[in-house]
Amino acid sequence: MRSSSLSPVFVAVAGLAAFIVLTGFLLPAQVASHFSAPGRADAALPRAGYLGFMLVFGAALPLFVAILSDRLLRNPRTPLNLPHRDYWLAPERRAATVDFLCRQNAGFAVQLAVFLGYVHALVVYANRLQPPRLPSVAFVAGVLLFVAAAVWRAMRLIGHLRNVSRRR
Question: Residue 158's closest CA among 109, 107, 75, 101?
Fold first, then answer.
């Protein structure tokens, strides 16, 4: 992946990792890590296990999204199904199109890292309460915002790719 599209992902993942480590000191020895629909804790992990999982998962998932999409998009043998494919993948535009798509996927990876940080913050908050309780409304609101942002991002991408009349 080119560093220009990967840089924001590395910054987001590093920020997420720092946030997880720094807020990890606020967690109890046994961390309520899974919650039922009404927000009641129904599973726990030792603090080190929870932090290790969040660090690996929080870093691996956004990096996986960004790196895998980059590798696939930059492989000339990968079939790409785009609106106005012939226009966007013409030899004189292919590199710029691939760079654009990689930046869009990197943006989604950053969005994913921010969402995972939000979920971790909710878990930290939930574990400060006795008994631990996840604020369900805040969690659902976060999920809905994440999904809405992903849909908006996809609609903008499709709109950009469909609009070739002004570019010709």
Answer: 101
